[in-house]
Design a protein that fits this description.
172 residues, 4-stranded antiparallel sheet, extended, Nuclear Transport Factor 2, Chain: A, 8 strands
Length: 172
Amino acid sequence: MSKRKKTILLIVVIALILLLGAYLYYTLSLQGRNSEKDAAIASARSQQNLTEVERADKWVWGKDSIYWVVLGKNAAGEEMYVWLPYTAEGQPAQGGSKAHVLPLAGTIARSDMERRVETELPEAKIIRMLPGFYDNRHVWQVFYEQQDTHYYRFYSMKDGSAIGEAFDLPKW
């Protein structure tokens, strides 16, 4: 085998090892979060008799305000959000905390809220929108960028009204 072929083979082997290492790192780093998500979905299924789950989002606003929010359908076909309180250690909150349930009917849908924000803030670029629980209300938390500044803004899930002022984040 020529020196050139050996060099090419060595480069290919090193590239494969690096790709395998990156894949393993990514898989292992998400393993805890995925198991936490699976546990939250199982808990929502058992507590609220959900037969289908559309999505599950982790919502964090401080160490005492951590929820997994599961959107699903019950046996009667009713869509609902289920808020499951969690601890900072990734465990279900114990004690008096139990699931908050909000039927999807009578709330502002995600797509409607996106359109409302785009109308209200035409220059803003929505980065993420999550259901949350803020100021003892079920909310949409909108994280967006406007004029090189990032903001958090909360909107009521019941009527889409803004709650308080936007929180701007310092530039890094």
